[in-house]
From TrEMBL:
This is NADH-ubiquinone oxidoreductase subunit 6. CDD domains: NADPH_BDH. Residues 193-371 form the Fe-containing alcohol dehydrogenase-like C-terminal domain. Belongs to the iron-containing alcohol dehydrogenase family. It comes from Peribacillus loiseleuriae. Residues 13-182 form the Alcohol dehydrogenase iron-type/glycerol dehydrogenase GldA domain. GO terms for molecular function: alcohol dehydrogenase (NAD+) activity; metal ion binding.
Length: 390
């Protein structure tokens, strides 16, 4: 029998399909103030941002905008956003962007609601997130199909001083409303489509073999992974393929619902360490690491059976090889060396990376838990693509 474990699949409402943005006209608020969080600002030039503004104006909201959330958002950015919120006093925070934007907005929300908090460590495990929603609620509008942050309790924030990525998860940070507007994702360039799409696949396949896996999460994760294999190549080849874009956006959401309840595994542990140290984009790191860890995890008979069952559903004999073929089709390299190109620096950092990965929160739910030496072996293999002596 599975132990009792409560699940939360999303916030108050999940809106999807074309013209989903119109739901913004239904927002209510005491102060009628909406604080919009964006990335580089290119979204401001699109018709969709104008729609967001127009719908909020119909609902009689005043608007303030925070831009320049960077990829892998820093704690400095979080504090800047929280400070701007404190001055504006919004009752809705609206994140419009990819995972970095949504993660940053969630973290800003925490520090806006609780100005007594001053450091990243205060909200990092084992510290809980204090209660939210005294001042504001949150809407997430993803512009990419990757993180599932719109239905996730998790954020990844980079320490500004140490460059270490902190994974923080608490159901308090589950957004209240997720709006999945497929057209808003059509402007993603092919390489970004590829990396974020493989982030979805990683979420789904890691959730499927998590130590906390259950039938509900499995159902969501499996459907998500099947959609990625079918629709990611289409979205990569033709960014304007609205059906493929919608399917990928829904796949991202399904995987987000799964992993936020059952957690992830060491693909993410290693990706967090490598991304923080060498600046490898998260989705790209996951894509490269995933087949290697599937092979590692396959040493466990039950995990191997789950992988083989899924492989048969996509018409493949070997899941790791099927992922390598998918990566090749969408322009993702087969090892980290191709991306980082700093062999000596990487080699001298393997001990540190292995220790970081070992301590990562995702490690404890991987089907097999490596020790630091095994992490070192896997990280070296993923970097060079072949076994090498130390």
């Amino acid at each position: 029998m599975l132990p009792m474990r409560p699940m939360k699949l999303a916030g108050e409402h999940l809106i999807f399909g074309e013209n989903s943005l119109e739901y913004l006209t239904q927002l209510k608020g005491t102060h009628k103030k909406a604080f919009i969080v964006l990335g580089g600002g290119s979204i401001k030039k699109t018709e969709y941002f104008k729609k967001i503004e127009d719908y909020l104006k119909i609902a009689e909201f005043k608007i303030d905008v925070f831009t320049n959330v960077e990829p892998d958002p820093s704690f400095n950015t979080v504090l800047k956003g929280a400070q701007q919120m404190m001055e504006f006093k919004p009752d809705w925070i609206i994140a419009v962007g990819g995972g970095s934007v949504m993660d940053a907005a969630k973290a800003m929300w925490v520090f806006y609601e609780h100005p007594e908090l001053k450091t990243l460590e205060q909200i990092s495990p084992p510290n809980p997130i204090p209660p939210l929603r005294k001042k504001a609620k949150m809407v997430c509008i993803p512009t990419s199909s990757g993180t599932g942050s719109e239905v996730s309790r998790s954020v990844v924030i980079t320490d500004t001083e140490t460059h270490v990525k902190h994974g923080i998860g608490d159901m308090e940070m589950m957004p209240d409303i997720a709006i999945l507007e497929p057209g808003i994702t059509t402007s993603m360039p092919p390489e970004f489509t590829a990396a974020t799409g493989m982030d979805v696949l990683t979420h789904a396949l890691e959730a499927l073999v998590s130590r906390r896996a259950n039938i509900i999460a499995d159902t969501l994760a499996e459907r998500s992974a099947l959609e990625v294999f079918e629709y990611l190549p289409r979205a990569y080849e033709d960014g304007s393929d609205i059906e493929a874009r919608e399917k990928m956006l829904l796949a991202s959401c399904l995987a987000g619902m799964a992993f936020t309840n059952v957690s992830l595994g060491i693909v993410h542990s290693i990706a967090h360490a490598v991304g923080g140290k060498f600046g490898v984009p998260h989705g790209l790191a996951n894509a490269i690491i995933l087949p290697y860890i599937i092979e590692f995890n396959s040493q466990d008979p039950n995990t191997s059976r789950i992988y083989n069952d899924f492989a048969s559903k996509i018409g493949a004999d070997n899941l790791a090889n099927a992922i390598r073929e998918l990566n090749k089709k969408i322009g993702i390299p087969s090892n980290l060396m191709t991306v980082i190109q700093r062999d000596n620096d990487f080699e001298s950092s393997i001990q540190e990376l292995a220790e970081l990965a070992s301590k990562d929160g995702c490690t404890k739910t991987n089907p097999l838990i490596p020790d630091v030496n095994e992490f070192k072996r896997q990280i070296r293999l993923i970097y060079f693509g072949v076994e090498r002596g130390q």
